[in-house]
Amino acid sequence: MSFTLNKLKTKGNYAVHPFSVQSGALTLHGLTFGQGKEVVIALHGWLDNCHSFLPMLEHNTLTATWYCVDFPGHGLSDWRGSDAHYYFIDYIDDIYNLIEQLGVNKVHLVGHSMGAMAAGLFASCFPDTVNTVTMIEGLGVVTTPSKKVVEQLRNAILNRRRVNKKAPRQYESKQIIHQARAVQSDLPLDLIALLMDRNIRETEQGWLLRTDPKLKNHSGFRFDEQQCIAVISEINVPCQLILGSEGYQFISDNLNKYANYYKSLIVNEVEGGHHCHMQSPEQCLQQIHAFMLQTGAC
């Protein structure tokens, strides 16, 4: 077994267990919180990392064991190979490997944004390993109309050329990185710092992003709408969607478009934007625990 739970570390007034796990040739890293027979796997969004879940978990007594993992190319986890790219469907394999190496029969999946979409797709493929799915500001999958599949692939190939030619950008301070993220985020600077400090590292020349630049390449392939419906229709476990009161409009649009295809879907709203689980962590955690209790899992 290639799962490693490292020595307990104390950070501030809370305890955290770093862990690492093999997913193929890659080593994935993350943090685990809490104790309990129920296992929760937390999946972050695109260009985020497992610190996305710190505000929910760091100061709370948890009745389950949470594993918050950095996806490949994010946080402290390995990058995919130099000749590889980041396909959304490969995250399903990473989740499968994590569950397999944890040696547990069933888990609860909690995902934010891209992680929410990955959680739903995984539950569709492997329902026997999933108790519940909580999706935070994410529903279905990102789709491309069938008639645009060639355009999608062509643009992706051309975009790879542009991204691969760029040299890694050096920043004079991590505060500059925080400010750059703030321009594209609904988070205050203190939460941006909490999130981004796991995505950056200091070198002799300055500060660098840990995230793989190839994560910004255009997707070479996406599901179309009918395939998205087919995926959702195969989900046989209880699902919950948590929306931010000021979250992304396309999540609400997807809810209107796909809600009827879920066999079991509860929708709740909390205060905040797209990262509402960081802005209203107590509310989100309460909704997650209540949902797990409601389904008889805890």
Defining key terms:
two-stranded antiparallel ribbon; 298 residues; alpha/beta; single chain; 10-stranded mixed β-sheet
Structure description:
With 298 residues, the chain is an alpha/beta fold. Helices cover 34% and strands 21% of the residues. It has ten helices and twelve strands. The protein has helices at 54-57, 90-102, 114-125, 149-165, 174-183, 189-196, 225-233, 249-258, 276-279, 281-294; strands at 4-5, 9-11, 14-23, 26-33, 39-43, 65-69, 107-112, 130-136, 200-202, 207-209, 239-244, 265-270. The strands form two sheets. Strands 1, 2, 3, 4, 5, 6, 7, 8, 11 and 12 form a ten-stranded mixed sheet that branches. It has a two-stranded antiparallel ribbon with strand order 9-10. Strand 2 (9-11) and strand 3 (14-23) form a beta hairpin. 39% of the residues are buried.
Secondary structure category: alpha/beta
Overall helicity:
25-40%
Strand content: 15-25%
Separation of the first and last Cα atoms: 27 Å
Biggest beta sheet summary: 10 strands, mixed
Total beta strand runs? 12
Low-confidence stretches: 10-14
- Average pLDDT, rounded to a whole number, is 92
The best one-word shape is globular
- Over the alpha carbons, how many angstroms does the gyration radius reach? 19 Å
Helix/strand order, N-terminal first: EEEEEHEHEHEHHHEEHEHEHH
Number of helices: 10
